[in-house]
Each structure stands twice: as C-alpha cells, then as structure tokens.
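tl;dr need the bound structure. longer version: we got a ligand (glutathione) that a collaborator sent over and nobodys looked at where it sits. i said id run it. heres the input, straight from their email, havent touched it
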Amino acid sequence: MADLRVYRIPWSTNVDRIAMAAAHKDLAVEWEDVDPDDRRPVRELSGQDLVPVAVDPQDGTVVSDSPRILRWIEERWPAPSLWPADPGDAALADVFCHRFNEVWKGPPNRIAALLGPVDFELDRLSAHDRRAVDDDAARMRRWLARFEERLAEHDHLGGDAFGICDVTAYPFLRFGRQAPAADDADPFHRVLHEHGRFDDASHPRLTAWVARVAQRPGAPR
Ligand SMILES: N[C@@H](CCC(=O)N[C@@H](CS)C(=O)NCC(=O)O)C(=O)O
C-alpha cells in the first residue's frame, strides 16, 4: 500500500511541493489525476476545490492546502526532517514560508488577474492597470534581489541544508529560469517567467540554487 494518496492537476506548483517533500522522505505516493474542469472528486473528499489534497490510505485522514499537508507529512514521517533542528531556525523557516505564501505570491497573482487567461498583451490595459503591473513587477524584482542576498552564505533558503523553505519556494521561483511547458496554460506561470526572470549575470546564487534544487528527487524541472 502507498504511504499517501495525493490528488493533483497537471502543472500545479502546490502539488509540486508535496512531490518534493514526499521524495525527500522516500514516501510512496499514489497519484490521483483530477480533471481540472471537474473538481467533484476533490470537493466530495475535502469540501473544497483546490489541489493538492492528501489522503492517508491507512486511516483515511484527509488534508488539503499545501502548507498544512507539508506540516502533516513532517509530523507523520519526521525523518529525514524538512525543518531545521534548531527551534529558532525552525521558527524562522515558518515565517519565511508564511510570507512566501501570503505576501510574495500577491504581485504575480495580481498581474495574472489583470492580464487574464489568454491575452498576454500589456497594450490593452488602462494606464492605471499598467502602472499596477509595473509596480508589482518591481516588487517581484526587489524580492528576487533579497533571495539572492539570502543565498550569499548558505546553499539553501533555510540555511545550509535543503528543507521546507526550498520546497515552498522552488516550484514558483524556478519559472524565473525555466519556461512553462508547452501544454502548461496557467497564466500565473507565464507571469512568473515574464516578470520573475533572472540569470547567472543578474542573480548568480539564485541561478545556482535553482540548478541545485532541480536535481532533488521529485523536483519539477
Ligand atoms: N493554498 C492552497 C492553494 C491551492 C491552489 O491554488 N491550487 C491550484 C493548483 S496549484 C488549484 O487547484 N487551482 C484551481 C484551478 O486551477 O482551477 C495550497 O497551497 O494548496
């Protein structure tokens, strides 16, 4: 029997987090592919529409929302840990992940909402909306600079070891280096690639971090 069952849709960044955490702990995952246009199986199971949703096949526990699933996996299978051993460092890692989820995602989400699902042209936006896109794109660039600084003395976002900060951020930040797949139509990913782009000249440490984390088992690349 698999260790856990996970419901997913193609190209889901939040599902990628679970794949990376499960691979880190060498867990066997039974993947359930959900039709993005028919979320009934997910809704019936979890009472909401979004993936990932994880199920413990042993006792039927159902957990939705990637940060909650990651915490649940850590508690259920503590070794090897994704959190730093030092309690203060573990608390800082939680602050990083919370900010990444609640603050960092804001600008690219707002840009994707303004540009819409199909048309990626800035020209059709009002002057007000263009300014909003420019402001949010500038925020994304400023935060990329902070990630670059964070990696000055450490190989990973949470410190020396690979861990929860990398699992939380990599599925999103990787689009700064990697174009979305040809069949990935998610506008959010295109925004991350257009406005969150960086390279070895502009962000050498972040570029090396993407290359390093891409080699981890379960990492999308
Ligand atoms: N806070 C949730 C967000 C989950 C989420 O937004 N999932 C996306 C895929 S990455 C989804 O199901 N979106 C609905 C859709 O694409 O229709 C988490 O971290 O798991």
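gonna send this back to them w/ a short note. The chain has two domains: 4-76, 87-214.
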